[in-house]
TrEMBL record:
Keywords: Cell membrane, Membrane, Transmembrane, Transmembrane helix
The name this protein goes by in its record: Cation:proton antiporter
GO cellular component, one term: plasma membrane
Stretches that traverse the bilayer: 24-44, 75-95
NCBIfam families: PRK09094.1, PRK12659.1
Subcellular location(s) of the protein: Cell membrane
Main location: membrane
Membrane topology term: Multi-pass membrane protein
UniProt family annotation: Belongs to the CPA3 antiporters (TC 2.A.63) subunit C family.
Taxonomic lineage: Bacteria, Pseudomonadati, Chlorobiota, Chlorobiia, Chlorobiales
Length: 119
């Protein structure tokens, strides 16, 4: 299972980097989305997959014993999801604004911050 997740994570990173290097702004946004998902899977994989009980300390005990699920990677992934949604929302709004201002989604055509000449 860990090998499968490593392969999927590597594939998502490769696809995300490939899309970020494209000239189209929409592909850049999709690349950022894929990189966010790859980072979440990486944190999940590094946190060791266990089919254990929840990480609660039993009554009358000072520490956990045996197999248990680690809650820290899950909390980090939830935080990364929220941050990822914020970055995605920002890039979508930025794309909309550049489309309205410049009238293009090609990154090579966006060489200036001035408005395009009126014909």
């Amino acid at each position: 299972m860990t090998l499968l997740l490593a392969i999927v994570t590597g594939s998502l990173y490769a696809a995300g980097i490939f899309l970020i290097l494209r000239r189209n702004m929409v592909k850049v946004i999709f690349g950022l989305i894929l990189l966010g998902h790859a980072a979440n899977l990486l944190i999940f994989t590094v946190g060791r997959l266990t089919k254990g009980i929840p990480a609660f300390v039993p009554e009358g005990s000072d520490m956990l014993t045996g197999r248990f699920a680690d809650p820290l990677p899950q909390a980090l992934i939830l935080t990364a999801i929220v941050i990822g949604f914020g970055v995605q929302a920002f890039t979508i709004v930025l794309f909309k604004r550049t489309w309205l201002t410049l009238g293009t989604e090609d990154l090579d055509m966006m060489k200036t911050t001035d408005e395009p000449p009126k014909e």
